[in-house]
Structure formats: structure tokens, C-alpha cells
Amino acid sequence: MPFQSNSELIKKVPGTDKLSPKKQDQFRAVWNSCFKDGKPEQQCYQIAWGVVKKASGEGQIIGPAESQDSVADAIKTKDILDASDIVRDILSVAKTIRELRNEK
Fold first, then answer.
1. Contact by Cβ (8 Å): 17, 67
2. Which of 48, 19, 43, 17 has the alpha carbon at shortest distance from 31?
3. Which pTM does this prediction carry?
């Protein structure tokens, strides 16, 4: 179920209370966009945490270093983070990784 507010997010997702309000907005937007696109809830949480951590310069998104750099560069070049674009970029990188693994 989509999160309507940051207070709802904080109550239901452990750790989000430690994020700034801006990062909570970002997490919520990414999660809601992912969920709206029909992705499983667990995948939405993984993507949302990955985007928030990458935008903060923390953590890593699982995958080859080149893919991580591409996602980080895409995030850094945006003046305003558009959650749906970021989710699409991440899913595109994941698809490329799967295709590369299948070629080996």
C-alpha cells in the first residue's frame, strides 16, 4: 500500500525516522512509484533504500562497479530527483546485468 505521508512511512518502515524529511520524501516517492508499477513490496523497499543511500553517498547498490557508477552519475546529474526516472534507470541497469550474466 502506498505511503501517504512521512509520518506513516516512519511508523511502518524501521530506520526511516533517522532520515531527513527530504530523504523521507525521496524514499516515499521511489517506493510509491515502484509499487504503482506493480513491483513486489520487498523489491520496492530495496530500490527505495538503494536510491536514498546512493543519493546520500552511502551504501551500495548490488551489482558490478560500472553499473553502480552509472546509477550514481545519473542521480548526481539531476537537479531535482525524479523518482520514476531513477527507478527506471535502476531497473534498466538490473536488466542489463541479467542479460550480461545470461551471455556468460
1. no
2. 48
3. 0.56
User: What is the domain partition of the chain in residue ranges?
Assistant: 6-103
10 Å CB burial of residue 14 (0-12, 13-18, 19+) is exposed
Q: Indicate the residue type of 54.
A: K
Question: Tens digit of pLDDT for each residue in 39-58?
Answer: 999 889 999 998 888 877 65
**How far, in Å, CA of 70 to CA of 5, rounded?**
30
pLDDT band of residue 91 (cuts 50, 70, 90) is confident
**Cell numbers describing residue 2:** 502506498
**Which cell goes with 98?**
541479467
What would the pLDDT profile of 12-38 be if each residue is shown by its tens digit?
A: 999 999 999 999 999 999 999 989 989
Distance CA 40, CA 33 (A): 12
The C-alpha atoms of residue 54 and residue 65 are separated, in whole angstroms, by 13
